[in-house]
Write a structure and sequence with these properties.
This protein is about 35% helix and about 25% strand. By secondary structure, it is of the alpha/beta class. Helix 8 runs antiparallel to helix 9. The relative contact order is 0.12.
Protein backbone atom coordinates (compact mmCIF):
# COMPACT_ATOMS: atom_id res chain seq x y z
CA UNK A 1 0.00 0.00 0.00
CA UNK A 2 1.23 3.46 -0.89
CA UNK A 3 0.29 6.41 1.32
CA UNK A 4 -0.32 9.66 -0.56
CA UNK A 5 -0.24 12.88 1.46
CA UNK A 6 -2.75 15.51 0.34
CA UNK A 7 -4.48 15.97 -2.98
CA UNK A 8 -1.94 14.68 -5.47
CA UNK A 9 -2.01 12.86 -8.78
CA UNK A 10 -1.52 9.13 -8.33
CA UNK A 11 1.23 7.42 -10.30
CA UNK A 12 -1.27 5.08 -11.95
CA UNK A 13 -3.55 5.67 -14.94
CA UNK A 14 -5.60 2.49 -14.84
CA UNK A 15 -9.08 1.73 -13.52
CA UNK A 16 -9.30 3.42 -10.12
CA UNK A 17 -11.93 2.16 -7.67
CA UNK A 18 -12.37 4.69 -4.87
CA UNK A 19 -14.14 5.05 -1.53
CA UNK A 20 -13.96 7.80 1.08
CA UNK A 21 -14.68 8.35 4.75
CA UNK A 22 -13.19 8.92 8.20
CA UNK A 23 -13.03 5.14 8.93
CA UNK A 24 -12.39 5.52 12.66
CA UNK A 25 -11.31 2.13 13.98
CA UNK A 26 -11.49 0.48 10.52
CA UNK A 27 -14.05 -1.93 11.98
CA UNK A 28 -15.89 -4.88 10.44
CA UNK A 29 -18.46 -2.62 8.78
CA UNK A 30 -15.69 -0.59 7.14
CA UNK A 31 -13.93 -3.77 6.07
CA UNK A 32 -17.03 -4.87 4.15
CA UNK A 33 -16.75 -1.68 2.07
CA UNK A 34 -12.98 -2.05 1.63
CA UNK A 35 -13.42 -5.66 0.53
CA UNK A 36 -15.86 -4.57 -2.14
CA UNK A 37 -13.49 -1.84 -3.33
CA UNK A 38 -10.61 -4.32 -3.58
CA UNK A 39 -12.80 -6.89 -5.37
CA UNK A 40 -14.00 -4.36 -7.95
CA UNK A 41 -10.41 -3.27 -8.56
CA UNK A 42 -9.42 -6.89 -9.21
CA UNK A 43 -12.36 -7.44 -11.57
CA UNK A 44 -11.30 -4.44 -13.65
CA UNK A 45 -7.57 -5.10 -13.32
CA UNK A 46 -7.28 -1.73 -11.60
CA UNK A 47 -6.27 -0.24 -8.27
CA UNK A 48 -8.15 0.28 -5.02
CA UNK A 49 -8.08 3.71 -3.38
CA UNK A 50 -9.24 4.95 0.03
CA UNK A 51 -9.62 8.67 0.73
CA UNK A 52 -9.60 9.51 4.42
CA UNK A 53 -9.25 12.71 6.40
CA UNK A 54 -6.95 13.67 9.25
CA UNK A 55 -7.54 15.14 11.73
CA UNK A 56 -11.11 13.98 12.25
CA UNK A 57 -13.44 16.60 10.69
CA UNK A 58 -15.30 17.14 13.97
CA UNK A 59 -12.11 18.41 15.58
CA UNK A 60 -12.01 21.19 12.96
CA UNK A 61 -15.71 21.92 12.54
CA UNK A 62 -16.63 21.69 16.23
CA UNK A 63 -18.82 19.28 18.11
CA UNK A 64 -15.87 17.14 19.19
CA UNK A 65 -15.20 18.42 22.72
CA UNK A 66 -15.88 14.95 24.12
CA UNK A 67 -15.17 12.86 21.02
CA UNK A 68 -12.68 10.06 21.56
CA UNK A 69 -11.29 8.13 18.60
CA UNK A 70 -10.73 4.42 18.24
CA UNK A 71 -7.52 4.75 16.26
CA UNK A 72 -4.52 7.02 15.98
CA UNK A 73 -3.24 7.77 12.49
CA UNK A 74 -0.47 5.17 12.89
CA UNK A 75 -3.00 2.49 13.87
CA UNK A 76 -5.41 3.45 11.11
CA UNK A 77 -2.68 3.26 8.47
CA UNK A 78 -1.64 -0.19 9.75
CA UNK A 79 -5.24 -1.44 9.57
CA UNK A 80 -5.69 -0.15 6.03
CA UNK A 81 -2.45 -1.85 5.03
CA UNK A 82 -3.82 -5.17 6.27
CA UNK A 83 -7.02 -4.67 4.23
CA UNK A 84 -5.14 -4.95 0.92
CA UNK A 85 -5.83 -1.41 -0.34
CA UNK A 86 -3.40 -0.18 -3.01
CA UNK A 87 -3.48 3.56 -2.27
CA UNK A 88 -4.34 5.42 0.93
CA UNK A 89 -4.93 9.12 0.29
CA UNK A 90 -4.58 11.15 3.49
CA UNK A 91 -6.19 14.55 3.07
CA UNK A 92 -5.43 17.12 5.79
CA UNK A 93 -8.82 18.31 6.98
CA UNK A 94 -8.73 22.07 7.45
CA UNK A 95 -11.33 24.80 7.75
CA UNK A 96 -10.44 25.86 4.20
CA UNK A 97 -10.88 22.32 2.87
CA UNK A 98 -14.28 22.09 4.58
CA UNK A 99 -15.46 25.04 2.45
CA UNK A 100 -15.06 23.07 -0.80
CA UNK A 101 -18.39 22.54 -2.51
CA UNK A 102 -19.50 19.04 -3.40
CA UNK A 103 -18.80 19.74 -7.07
CA UNK A 104 -15.33 21.14 -6.33
CA UNK A 105 -14.43 18.11 -4.21
CA UNK A 106 -15.58 15.73 -6.92
CA UNK A 107 -13.69 17.55 -9.69
CA UNK A 108 -10.49 18.36 -7.81
CA UNK A 109 -10.11 15.15 -5.81
CA UNK A 110 -12.04 12.36 -7.49
CA UNK A 111 -11.60 13.39 -11.13
CA UNK A 112 -8.44 15.49 -11.52
CA UNK A 113 -6.24 13.98 -8.81
CA UNK A 114 -7.37 10.35 -8.67
CA UNK A 115 -8.85 9.67 -12.07
CA UNK A 116 -11.74 7.79 -10.46
CA UNK A 117 -13.50 5.25 -12.68
CA UNK A 118 -15.76 3.78 -10.01
CA UNK A 119 -16.83 5.31 -6.70
CA UNK A 120 -18.25 3.09 -3.96
CA UNK A 121 -19.94 4.83 -1.03
CA UNK A 122 -22.19 4.00 1.90
CA UNK A 123 -25.90 4.75 1.67
CA UNK A 124 -25.68 8.04 3.62
CA UNK A 125 -22.29 9.33 2.52
CA UNK A 126 -22.08 12.88 1.19
CA UNK A 127 -19.27 15.09 -0.11
CA UNK A 128 -18.38 18.74 0.25
CA UNK A 129 -19.60 21.77 2.16
CA UNK A 130 -22.94 21.22 3.90
CA UNK A 131 -22.80 17.61 2.60
CA UNK A 132 -24.00 18.75 -0.82
CA UNK A 133 -22.58 15.85 -2.83
CA UNK A 134 -25.22 13.18 -2.28
CA UNK A 135 -25.52 9.84 -4.07
CA UNK A 136 -28.45 11.23 -6.05
CA UNK A 137 -26.35 14.19 -7.16
CA UNK A 138 -23.52 11.88 -8.17
CA UNK A 139 -25.87 9.64 -10.14
CA UNK A 140 -27.37 12.58 -12.01
CA UNK A 141 -23.94 13.96 -12.93
CA UNK A 142 -21.89 10.76 -13.29
CA UNK A 143 -21.61 11.07 -17.07
CA UNK A 144 -20.01 14.51 -16.94
CA UNK A 145 -17.58 13.39 -14.24
CA UNK A 146 -16.67 10.27 -16.19
CA UNK A 147 -17.04 7.66 -13.47
CA UNK A 148 -19.57 5.11 -12.27
CA UNK A 149 -21.15 5.36 -8.83
CA UNK A 150 -22.19 2.43 -6.64
CA UNK A 151 -23.99 2.86 -3.35
CA UNK A 152 -23.84 0.12 -0.74
CA UNK A 153 -27.52 -0.48 0.12
CA UNK A 154 -28.77 0.56 3.54
CA UNK A 155 -29.94 -2.97 4.30
CA UNK A 156 -26.43 -4.30 3.72
CA UNK A 157 -24.89 -1.84 6.17
CA UNK A 158 -27.72 -2.23 8.69
CA UNK A 159 -27.35 -6.01 8.43
CA UNK A 160 -23.74 -5.68 9.55
CA UNK A 161 -25.06 -3.45 12.34
CA UNK A 162 -21.69 -2.00 13.30
CA UNK A 163 -20.66 1.62 13.69
CA UNK A 164 -17.76 3.42 15.33
CA UNK A 165 -20.28 4.82 17.83
CA UNK A 166 -21.30 1.30 18.87
CA UNK A 167 -17.66 0.32 19.34
CA UNK A 168 -16.99 3.39 21.49
CA UNK A 169 -20.01 2.65 23.66
CA UNK A 170 -18.90 -0.96 24.21
CA UNK A 171 -15.40 0.15 25.22
CA UNK A 172 -16.67 2.84 27.59
CA UNK A 173 -18.80 0.17 29.27
CA UNK A 174 -15.86 -2.21 29.54
CA UNK A 175 -17.51 -4.64 27.13
CA UNK A 176 -14.26 -5.59 25.45
CA UNK A 177 -15.52 -8.83 23.91
CA UNK A 178 -18.27 -7.02 22.00
CA UNK A 179 -15.93 -4.20 20.98
CA UNK A 180 -13.39 -6.68 19.64
CA UNK A 181 -16.12 -8.54 17.78
CA UNK A 182 -17.22 -5.26 16.15
CA UNK A 183 -13.64 -4.32 15.31
CA UNK A 184 -12.50 -7.70 14.05
CA UNK A 185 -9.30 -7.38 16.11
CA UNK A 186 -8.27 -6.67 19.71
CA UNK A 187 -8.62 -3.02 20.70
CA UNK A 188 -5.20 -1.53 21.32
CA UNK A 189 -3.38 1.19 23.21
CA UNK A 190 0.19 2.16 22.45
CA UNK A 191 2.53 4.44 24.32
CA UNK A 192 5.73 5.00 26.24
CA UNK A 193 6.55 3.26 29.52
CA UNK A 194 7.04 5.88 32.24
CA UNK A 195 8.11 5.61 35.87
CA UNK A 196 5.48 4.99 38.54
CA UNK A 197 5.62 4.79 42.34
CA UNK A 198 6.51 1.05 42.36
CA UNK A 199 3.64 0.09 44.65
CA UNK A 200 2.91 -2.84 42.32
CA UNK A 201 6.47 -4.06 42.76
CA UNK A 202 5.98 -4.00 46.53
CA UNK A 203 2.90 -6.16 46.13
CA UNK A 204 4.77 -8.66 43.96
CA UNK A 205 3.16 -7.43 40.74
CA UNK A 206 5.55 -4.96 39.06
CA UNK A 207 3.84 -2.87 36.41
CA UNK A 208 4.82 -0.87 33.35
CA UNK A 209 3.00 2.46 33.48
CA UNK A 210 1.74 3.36 30.01
CA UNK A 211 1.58 6.96 28.82
CA UNK A 212 -0.71 7.35 25.78
CA UNK A 213 0.35 10.57 24.09
CA UNK A 214 -2.79 11.12 22.02
CA UNK A 215 -5.36 12.79 24.27
CA UNK A 216 -8.12 11.93 21.78
CA UNK A 217 -7.53 8.17 21.99
CA UNK A 218 -10.38 6.38 23.75
CA UNK A 219 -9.37 4.69 27.01
CA UNK A 220 -11.68 1.78 27.97
CA UNK A 221 -13.65 1.72 31.23
CA UNK A 222 -11.82 1.44 34.54
CA UNK A 223 -11.04 -2.12 35.54
CA UNK A 224 -8.67 -5.06 35.27
CA UNK A 225 -8.17 -6.61 31.82
CA UNK A 226 -6.48 -9.65 30.35
CA UNK A 227 -4.18 -8.33 27.62
CA UNK A 228 -1.35 -9.25 25.34
CA UNK A 229 1.67 -6.95 25.20
CA UNK A 230 3.75 -6.34 22.08
CA UNK A 231 7.36 -5.32 22.72
CA UNK A 232 10.15 -5.34 20.14
CA UNK A 233 8.55 -7.98 17.95
CA UNK A 234 7.58 -10.31 20.79
CA UNK A 235 4.20 -10.89 22.41
CA UNK A 236 3.64 -11.47 26.13
CA UNK A 237 0.58 -12.13 28.25
CA UNK A 238 -0.40 -9.71 30.95
CA UNK A 239 -3.07 -8.05 33.04
CA UNK A 240 -3.71 -4.34 32.81
CA UNK A 241 -5.24 -1.89 35.25
CA UNK A 242 -7.08 1.32 34.36
CA UNK A 243 -8.29 3.53 37.20
CA UNK A 244 -7.61 5.92 40.07
CA UNK A 245 -6.32 3.29 42.52
CA UNK A 246 -9.07 3.70 45.16
CA UNK A 247 -7.37 1.31 47.64
CA UNK A 248 -4.49 3.78 47.87
CA UNK A 249 -4.81 7.51 48.12
CA UNK A 250 -6.77 8.21 44.94
CA UNK A 251 -4.61 9.53 42.13
CA UNK A 252 -5.05 10.67 38.55
CA UNK A 253 -6.10 7.83 36.27
CA UNK A 254 -3.29 5.43 35.50
CA UNK A 255 -2.81 2.70 32.92
CA UNK A 256 -0.41 0.04 34.15
CA UNK A 257 0.28 -3.46 32.97
CA UNK A 258 1.80 -6.43 34.76
CA UNK A 259 3.61 -8.37 32.02
CA UNK A 260 3.83 -12.10 32.68
CA UNK A 261 7.20 -13.89 32.56
CA UNK A 262 8.97 -10.60 31.90
CA UNK A 263 11.93 -9.12 33.79
CA UNK A 264 13.34 -6.17 31.88
CA UNK A 265 13.68 -2.47 32.61
CA UNK A 266 11.78 -0.81 29.78
CA UNK A 267 11.42 2.81 30.92
CA UNK A 268 11.32 5.04 27.86
CA UNK A 269 10.46 2.15 25.55
CA UNK A 270 7.23 1.83 23.57
CA UNK A 271 4.77 -1.02 24.01
CA UNK A 272 1.36 -1.91 22.65
CA UNK A 273 -1.33 -3.57 24.74
CA UNK A 274 -4.15 -5.50 23.09
CA UNK A 275 -7.33 -5.91 25.14
CA UNK A 276 -8.70 -9.45 25.33
CA UNK A 277 -11.24 -9.51 28.17
CA UNK A 278 -12.46 -7.56 31.19
CA UNK A 279 -11.67 -9.53 34.36
CA UNK A 280 -13.43 -7.22 36.81
CA UNK A 281 -14.37 -3.60 37.39
CA UNK A 282 -12.17 -1.41 39.57
CA UNK A 283 -12.87 -1.65 43.29
CA UNK A 284 -11.58 -0.50 46.66
CA UNK A 285 -10.03 -2.99 49.11
CA UNK A 286 -9.73 -2.54 52.87
CA UNK A 287 -6.00 -3.28 52.87
CA UNK A 288 -3.03 -3.78 50.56
CA UNK A 289 -2.95 -7.43 51.60
CA UNK A 290 -6.51 -7.97 50.39
CA UNK A 291 -5.60 -6.20 47.14
CA UNK A 292 -2.55 -8.47 46.74
CA UNK A 293 -4.73 -11.55 47.31
CA UNK A 294 -7.16 -10.38 44.61
CA UNK A 295 -4.29 -9.73 42.19
CA UNK A 296 -3.22 -13.37 42.58
CA UNK A 297 -6.74 -14.40 41.55
CA UNK A 298 -6.76 -11.88 38.68
CA UNK A 299 -3.48 -13.22 37.37
CA UNK A 300 -4.74 -16.81 37.28
CA UNK A 301 -7.93 -15.72 35.57
CA UNK A 302 -5.97 -13.72 32.99
CA UNK A 303 -3.69 -16.68 32.26
CA UNK A 304 -6.71 -18.92 31.70
CA UNK A 305 -8.34 -16.38 29.39
CA UNK A 306 -5.17 -15.93 27.34
CA UNK A 307 -4.71 -19.70 26.97
CA UNK A 308 -7.87 -19.70 24.87
CA UNK A 309 -6.13 -17.48 22.28
CA UNK A 310 -3.64 -20.21 21.40
Amino acid sequence: MKVVEGIARLDHDGYMVVTAGTFDGVHVGHKAILQQVCEQARVHNGKSVVITFWPHPKFILGGASTLKLLSTWKEKEELFRKSGIDFLVKIPFTKEFSELSGDAFIRQVLVDALGTKKLIIGYDHKFGKNREGSFEYLQENASQYGFEVEEIPRQDIDHIGISSTKVRKALMEGNIEHANEFLGYHYMLEGEVVKGDKIGTGLGFPTANLHVEESFKLIPADGIYAVTVDFKGKSFGGMLYIGNRPTLQESPKTIEVNIFNFDQSIYGERIRVNFVALLRKDQRFDSLEKLRHQLVIDREQAINVLKQLK
